[in-house]
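Let's practice the habit of predicting before peeking. Look at the sequence and jot down your guess about where helices and strands might fall. Then scroll down.
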Amino acid sequence: MKAGIPSGTPIAYKNGMTSMKVLIVDDNQLLCWGLGKTLSKRGIIHHAVENGTDALSEIRSAFYDLVFLDIKLPDANGLDLLPVIRGISPGTKVVVISSNGSESNVRRAMAAGAVRFMEKPYTCEELAEALEAVFPRKSEGKPASK
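Done guessing? Here is the structure:
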């Protein structure tokens, strides 16, 4: 732990940068492209994979501050992958994204460690709200709220 920086703090913030590193796990290439474009506009480094096998490989090989994880993947159920991701990388936050926002899916995602559930289709504003909720920007000159 660097002086004054709690463990589990995103790498981007530890290094004094404003960017963070995000992994997108979704087999919908158009969604990955759109989400990636939105993240790029915000200066966020991102990488996209289309299946659970590649997602776990990425999580094992690099630290990601945040993972956007779809439930329905070609080789896995994202809700089953969620605890595995959290076990490999406890400091990584996970936002589950799905076109099936049933109450049971939301409950299961949150119980498995997701910090948020976003139902597809979502707007750029909803994405911005999710990013701000997960990693609030520090307001300059104002004390951080608790």
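How did you do? The chain is about 40% helix and 15% strand.
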